[in-house]
Amino acid sequence: MSELIVTTREGETHLVSAVAGASVMEVIRDAGIDELLALCGGACSCATCHVHVDREFAALLLPVTEDENSLLDGSNHRNERSRLSCQIRMTDNLSGLRVTIAKED
User: Can you give the pTM of this predicted structure?
Assistant: First the structure.
């Protein structure tokens, strides 16, 4: 089982277990961290699961899709490490992944 390190908007850090294949959004939600609205349920259609990925892990992720890029463009808090957590699937090589929940738009 992998581990995910989540920092909330208030700066609280949580270490949570993550099953390979689960999206980062699902892992955060299942851990009881309620800051991610994830209104679309992971369908890449709302951008309410926006996170900032730690620099050391950014290169390990699959590239941003056109749909994800379009949704992130609508955020005032987008930066070079912005991703939708519903589009990141946990794998063994992502164990220890650090994400920070982005400010709400």
Answer: 0.95
